[in-house]
Structures are given as C-alpha cells and as structure tokens.
Design a protein that fits this description.
This protein is an all-alpha fold. The chain folds into 2 domains: 305 residues, no CATH class; 214 residues, Methane Monooxygenase Hydroxylase, Chain G, domain 1 (Up-down Bundle). 81% of the residues lie in helices and 0% in strands. It has 24 helices and no strands. Helix 5 packs parallel to helix 10 and helix 21 runs antiparallel to helix 22.
Amino acid sequence: MIAHHSILILIIGGTAFFLFGMSIASDNLQSLAANRVRDVIAKLSTKPTLAVFAGIVITVIMQSSGAVTSMLVGLGTAGVITLPQVMGIILGTGVGTTITTQLLSLNIAEWGLPIFAFAFLVHFMTHRKTLSRVMQALMGFGLMFWGLEVIGIGTADLKNVEIFTSSLDYLRANPLAMIAITAIFTAFVHSSAAVVGIAMAMATSNLINLTDAFYWVYGANIGTTATALMAAAGGNTVGKQVAWSHCLHKVVMVGIFYFLTPYAAELIMTGTPARDVANAHLFFNITGTILFFPFIKQGAALIEKIFPPSASEKDFSVKYLGRMNFESPNVVLAHAERECLRMADIVISMIKDSILILKNENIDLADDLRTRDNQVDMLNREISLYITKYTDQNDGALNKEMIRLFGFAADLESAADVIDNSILELARKKHSLKLDFSNEGWSEIISLHDAMIEVAALSVSCFQTQSKDLAAKVVFKKRVIRKMEKTMREAHIERLVQGKAETINTSSIHLDVLSDYRRVVGLLSNHVYTFLRGADNFNRPRGD
C-alpha cells in the first residue's frame, strides 16, 4: 500500500514522520529530566571532562545538538557559564547526537510501527505520569524508525530516476557542492540526525557509497550549527562567541577530514551500509572531540580574539564590588548596596523606554533593551555571588541586611525580564501585525506606565533610605495601580462590547501589557512589604 505512493511523497512523508517522532521523543525526555537541563549544564561545566560528559547526556535528552548549543548561547549571553566551559559541552554535543544515529542503524526499522503501537497502548492505559512520559518518548522513537523505513522505501526507487542519478553523479564529482547542499538542508530541517538517517537509507539502497556518506556527514555537522548562529543573532558578544565556536569547530574538522575521506571510509567499512554511515558520523565526532579537547582553553582564547566584545560591553562591569577581603563588613554592605542602586537605575531606564517600543517599531531600541537586560542579569549574578561570599562572616543584623539586598536585586532582575521577554515580544507582535491601540486604550496604557515609573522611583528611594513614609506611599500607589488596572480592564471590555475595531484587534496585547506593567509594580514593591512586615501599624491586605 505504501509503495503505491510517489517517490517524493514517500521521502517527504518519511522525513516528516522522523522529525515529528524526534520532537515527541525530545519533549518527553526533557520532561522526564524535570527541566533540570540548565542546572546540569551549570554544575557539570566546571571541569572540561565533566563538560564533555554533560554535552553528551543533554544532547541525548534533547535529541538535537543545535538545540543544546542554542541553549548554551542563551546561558552564555546571560553570563551563567563562560566560553571555556561552553567549549567542552560543545565537544560533547557532537558525540551525543551520534547516539541517535547508532540506534537508527540497528536493523529494526520495520519494527517502528509495532514499537509505536505498543508504547501507545501502554500510554493509553496507564495512569502513572512517569510511565506515560516514557511511553510517549518510545512512541517518538517508533515514529523515527518508521519514518526511516518509509524513506528507505522511497529512496529504493530513486535509482530508476535519471535526473536524480545524474545529480548524484555531479555531486559525487564535486564533493564541496554535496557538503554545501546537505548543510543547507540540515539548517532547514534543524536536525543532523535526520540528514544522516536519509544518508543511511540511500546507502542501503546503493545510491551512495561510504565516501559519499562521509560528505553527507560533513554537511550535516556544519548545517546543524545554523540553529545556534540564528539564536545568537540578537544576543551579545558572548552568545555570538558560543555560536561561532560551535560553527568553527565543525568547519575545521571538516577541513581536516576532507582530504582523508577515502582513507577514513576504508578504515571503518564493515559491509553493512546503514551501520557504516552511522559509524562515519560517530568516527567524525569522536575524533573531533579527542583532537580539540586538549586545546579548549586555547580555542576559547582564539574565539575571544576573533570576536572581541564591543566597546559598550567591554566598559560595562561591576563598579563597587571589590575582590578583596574587607576588614569592615559595613564596607561590604555599602558596596553591595551601591551596585544594587546602579542596577535599579538600569531597570528604571528600561521601564521608561518600554512605552516607546510599544508606540513605534525601533529595532535599535529593542536591541538596546536586550543589552540592558543582559547587564542587569550580570549585576544580579555578581551581587548574589558577592553577598553569598560574605554573609557567613557577618553578624545576624548584617546578614539580614544582605538578604534584603539579595531579594531586591532578584526582584529587579525579574522586572527587567518582564520588559525584555514579555513587553518586547508584545511590541514585536503589534508591529508585525500592523496594529494600533485605540486612542482610549493607548491613553490608559500611558497612564498606567506613568504610575509605574512613579512607584519605581519611590521604591528605589525607600530601599535606599529605609523610610516608613516612603514605604507607605509605595503601598498606597500600588493599591491605586491595582484599582487602575481593574478599571482599565472593565473599560476595555466595554469597548469590545461596542465593537470598536482597534480594541478588538489589539485586545490580547492590550490586556497583557496591563498585566505586565502591574507585575513590574508588584516586583518593585516586594522589598517594601518585607521592610514593613514588623511594623505594628501596618497590616498587608489580601490581594496585594
């Protein structure tokens, strides 16, 4: 029945099954890991050997070296891990992605549907969440095996298509073109395993030999770096360094292997086409890891020279947090507080500019807001490390003050994230859809924005002076803003009932902006409630 379909439908359909199965397996394996992947990266990346191991394990879980590297770009941009730590993980991702192709090379493709059916039945009947996740992941692998089987059925008839065989002859005579085409295709499907899987099917059908398959492996490894390069496009220099280190590592390895391909093919050939292609993928990545592992630090230094930080990034760093042991804990406290206030100034500037990005599309301002958010992330991290270092050395009263600083810095960082992750996304959506707020709606947003700026200024002053009067004003203003938001929501719903076009088109964006602005106010007010919690004349009402 399947064979009655056209060759093109079989290949495209099989690839779709494969990619969909990989997505299902990846999602459920990550759920089984309880979303601790980022924590594992941060903890295991401290030593090069552990970093390589972390890269292997996490790539097996996520089923995509490109996705792992994109995550590394985000962590590097946020300053969670350094470039030398990332280099080790990148080497591991290359090995990790070969595990999937090794599984695919097992002669069990025809068992794809039975595996899927069995896993589905268990998933359908069980009420245990963990077992259900395991079965869903197994369903994903079943679809991957079945997809590979369908691709194999489709490619088996390609030898009779003259235009295809002629194209293969041309590519065989021009290996660089073969590498380029497979790299582009890999970048398009975001999966090197899928491309290597197709190469396995074609090798099994005797359409390509092992030497040709090596070129497919080269292209797949270069193409998979496109995901991280795109993720780094809007990031800072560290993110770009991470993405380009991944790309350059693959390109250099291809450059080394390119002239040794016939010898490498002869070395690993066993006579089983699918297994040989999977082994070519494994051999390429393990060799690359072994060759580059001793030079991780030197490689990181080279990347940092090729992609140096911009002047603004180079100039931005902590100003007041010393790296020496102070005799007076009060000096430590004062320095941490000054850095916290500097962080607050950046957050307030982001709050002020958020209204501008909502009004008009401004790519430069959007990039600048992201840069400021990264700066806030860095300051929060440094303040947290600084406070943690000195907390145990101080008395109880000073420890309490440092915890207060820690909490305020964390809330500032969260407020900046609301602007960067939510408001910027809402602005992008509004501008991409060419939408405009109604005059009444825009006036409401401006009013709420002005009130938010006032609360932000009062909150920072209260943090600095520890004034009960200012704290009471912050609480009062927050309650006013809560009522404002409620009134604005009711007015918005009234305009919806009236059928106002602008209101209908921007409804979800408008309501999300109101919620996000109120959320920022709540974050900036948290420390005030902590300050007032012990006061006899203050009782925090429900709902604040």
